[in-house]
Amino acid sequence: MKKITLLIVLMALMVIPVFAGGQQDTAADSGKTQIALIIKATDSGFWQKVIEGGKAFAADNADVNVTVYGPASEADVEEAIGILENVVESRPDAIVIATNAGEGAVPAVKNALSLGIPVITVDTKIPADVTSHLATDNVLGGKLAADAMVAFFDKYGIAKKGTVAIVAAVAGVDTIIERDGGFIDQLRILAPDIKILDPRYVDNDIAKSLMTAEDLITTYDDLIGIYADNNHTGDGVAKAIEQAGLSDKIMVIAFDDDEDEIIALRDGVIKALIIQDQFNMGYSGCAYAIKALSGETLPKFVDTGVKVTKKEDL
Amino acid sequence: MLKKLKGSQFPERNLVIILVLLIAVLSIASHRFLSYNNIMNLLRQTSIIGVMAIGMTFVILSGGIDLSVGSVLAFSSVLSAMMMKAGLPIPLAIALALLAGTVLGVLMGILIHKGSVPAFIATLGGMTMVRGAVMLISGARKISGLPSEFKHFAVAKFLGIPGMVWIWALIVIVGFIIAKYTVFGRNVYAIGSNEEAARLSGIKIGKNIYGIYAFGAFTSAVAGILMTARLGNGVPTSGTGYELDVIAAVVVGGASMSGAVGTILGTVLGTVIIAAIRNGGNLLGINPFILDITVGGLIVFAVLFDQLNKKKSR
Question: A14, A45, A229, A249: most buried, per Cβ within 10 A?
Fold first, then answer.
């Protein structure tokens, strides 16, 4: 008898959150325009800013409700696809999505489009004809990173003929490929004698970026620069450089601007940050979704902008 | 005959041979392998898995398994970070996080012994629940802005060796003493060999099982503190997939998944061998996917070798 009571209590405990979740849905159903904002990862400061942008749009537009979805880590691609499929099943009025799933996201996105749900991709392209795509010009961002790195070689009197490494977030994602490609092409033009190593991929894991940077520092005596192509790689690389005390010898340029990256920039460990306007991705992403719903024809690509920030710009 | 005798008196002999050969090959292939900086890198990179592997050794020796270790790591990481951020004194925050982690282990022990839930299932459920709880309390966000005295610990050195390596060494010594010189240690082997026989000979199975999973979770919580110091953040996604790396280290170290066979020294050797392959591979620029194949092969080979030896001695 005691056991059965316990079992019932346990089951009740498990069911409560389900109802709690369900209530949110009914509250959201009250005639507002429903936008589903799907991000790549909740564990990252970068995506938190995209969420802030989306929430700000909802705050500015009383008839719009923005619901945020996303896996915990960018590496959870399979989970991301599942979330997208569930979102499409919940039939929102519009979907704003950033995903690493690439080809894997296409069937669900096509399904949404065929149901008349506009789909706006932000940050990362997927191989489907979506309503509109808002993103940083990542090739340009990579080029700006190479420009900044070379400027710091000159500033620190470092000869442009050593080794430069790239610590890359994830393999096989367009955003990252474009950032690295832009960087490599521009660095080859500016400093042809520098040996550029193939990107080292770290599954967007800070601990792995730190480990990889430590090994790079030990392996290459002539390492003069490391390019980290997003916030988590930037965090890990900065830790390794700080720990080794090599901030005057190895120039670090990183993408994005999370809290730790800003601290590293202030301490001179990271020399320059390539900052995207992620708030704008969230805000304008939702704004474009509303435009699409009102029947406006949207441009296929909107550049949300990118800028270089150094210590003195803080 | 002589060979066999040596083998049984010193079960880690083969591992020592493998490690010595590995070090010889790697130091010939790369003059940096044996450098002070690289050895410190290797030890620092290994210490987190190394600490957890000691706890896992007891679990596996008892014939059990613990899949929740990576989640417990994240739990302790996020909890300690949140408490420090809330202004609690650092030692208190650490102590409470360790205690909370240990309690999780006791709960899983109770589920396994009292509830007769197979360890695999109990800890699989535990892994998922604890990870969910971590995401819930942290909002799936990194906890940044920790006191710098705490972050300094990861970089700080004592007698030229990083602090986190000392912690690993301490846990190894504690584990060694428990396994070899305490009643609890002997009970673990007895339970792993034949639980029914152990019970009939008067060993209190329940208490020992709780102790085993409590110690396992405690080491994971220690690893969580080390991870927080190393990354300078409480990271809710940290430790994902670590359960497999930890089990691999214990198995390569000669422990048998069916219990009762294995030693602390073997686990340490297994941990270091896997780490040396990865680190050496990085130094030599070997494709990381080939390293995965090598480490995977090593796990299978370790067990295969064991089985062949058993057949021969029969």
Answer: A229
Task: Please report residues of A whose CB lies closer than 8 A to that of B238.
Answer: 205-207
Binary contact (A72, B35; C-beta < 8 A): no
The enclosing domain of A104 has a CATH number of: 3.40.50.2300
Beta-carbon-side half-sphere exposure of residue A311 (alpha carbons within 13 Å): 11
Instruction: Name the residue range of residue A75's domain.
Output: 30-136+278-305
User: CB within 8 A of B155, min separation 6: which ones?
Assistant: A242, A243, B162
pLDDT in tens, A48-102: 999 999 999 999 999 999 999 988 888 778 888 889 988 998 899 999 999 988 8
Nearest to A176 by CA among A237, A238, A125: A125
Structurally, chain A folds into a number of domains equal to 2
- Distance between CA atoms of A214 and A197, rounded to whole angstroms? 15
Question: What are the helix (H) ranges across A115-244?
Answer: 138-155, 174-190, 206-219, 231-244
Q: How many helices (H) and strands (E) does chain B have?
A: 14, 2
pTM, entire model: 0.78
CA within 13 Å, CB half, A42: 19
Do the Cβ atoms of A49 and A285 come closer than 8 Å? no
**Yes or no, beta carbons of B140 and A42 under 8 Å apart:** yes
Distance in angstroms (rounded) separating the CA atoms of residues B314 and A179: 61
Structural domain tally of chain B?
1
SS3 of B235, please?
coil
Residue-wise pLDDT tens digits, A226-264: 999 999 999 999 999 999 999 999 999 999 998 899 999
The ipTM assigned to this model is 0.70
Output the CA torsion B25→B30→B33→B37 (10° steps).
170
Please give the Cα distance from A252 to A186 (Å, whole number): 16
Best interface-test mutation with A: which of B237, B274, B284, B287 has the largest number of A CBs within 10 A? B237
Spatial separation of the C-alpha atoms in residues B102 and B211, rounded to whole Å: 9
Question: Over the range B101-126, which residues count as b (16 or more CB within 10 Å of their CB) and which as e?
Answer: bbebbbbbbbbbbeeebebeebbbeb
Give me the amino acid identity at B70.
G
